[in-house]
Amino acid sequence: MSLSRQVQRWIKGIAYHCGFSLRRLRSAKANVSTGGDFAGKVRPLLHKVDPYQGFDWQSLPDDRSGWGSDSTAFGELVAAIKPRRIIEVGTWKGGSALTLAEALEKQGLDAEIICVDTWLGALEMWTDQEDAGRFGSLALKHGYPTLYYQFLANVCRAGQQTRITPFPIPSVTAAQWFSLRDVRADLIYIDGSHEEDDVYQDLVSYWDLVRPGGVLFGDDWSWDGVRLAVERFARENSLPITHRHDKWELKRPA
To answer: What keywords are assigned to this protein (predicted)?
Structure first.
């Protein structure tokens, strides 16, 4: 890392600790990646203690149910991109992260997957108390979701603890942290909120974090909020939208 880049990181760190906001809700047209690229493992930067240490995963059922989490698009993208790091925005029970992990193993790639989620549920998870697959999966305890522990149990049951790292924080805050730490990824999967403004903000926040030649992709093209946000972002950045099975893709120029 050059001295100037070290100074920039030092200044950003000082500004953060002094209480200045690092949030940049920018126009998508202004997104140009000029940062560095942290090459190590991200987990030690996030967790002093292994998040799986001492967790009783056997006390929870085998339940990695989700939507689009077993798509063949994951394996195809891993084979095509050969990622060194993957960021997933919106994880639920971890089904798609586990599919990605299995694809990495098949390709013999030592890549880390960072899963960003609050595990509190998106809007549609809270709108119908009779929906066992959505509201029921939140597994409320004293009114607070415990879905995160089902995610941990699924990762442990699959033996993917060393590869998958949870980052339990809102997506925009996570993007700020990645930027502060110069963390980039070859594949970034957007599958959090389905509300147009939320999806658009995730696209703005994470596009700069995609390495040259990498792919930002997502699910739920049939949702109006997702489709309109992706089309808007692609139009503003003159990016072609491609589709691979049930996923949409935006490829960053090499």
So the answer is: Methyltransferase, Transferase
Domain count, the chain: 1
Cα-to-chain-centroid distance, residue 237: 21
pLDDT tens digits, one per residue of 188-236: 999 999 999 999 999 999 999 999 999 999 999 999 999 999 999 999 9
Three-state secondary-structure class, residue 43: helix
Residue 81 included in any domain: yes
- Would 21 be classed as within a structural domain? no
Task: Tell me if 245 is assigned to some domain.
Answer: yes
Tens-digit pLDDT profile for residues 84-112: 999 999 999 999 999 999 999 999 999 99
CATH number at residue 223: 3.40.50.150
Higher-scoring residue by pLDDT: 164, 134 = 164
Residue 92: exposure state from Cβ atoms within 10 A (0-12, 13-18, ≥19)? buried
Q: At what angle do helices 95-107 and 72-81 cross, to 10 degrees?
A: 40
Residue 66 confidence class, pLDDT cut points 50, 70, 90: confident
Angle (CA) 59-61-65 rounded to 5° is: 145
Domain hosting 219: range is 39-53+63-251
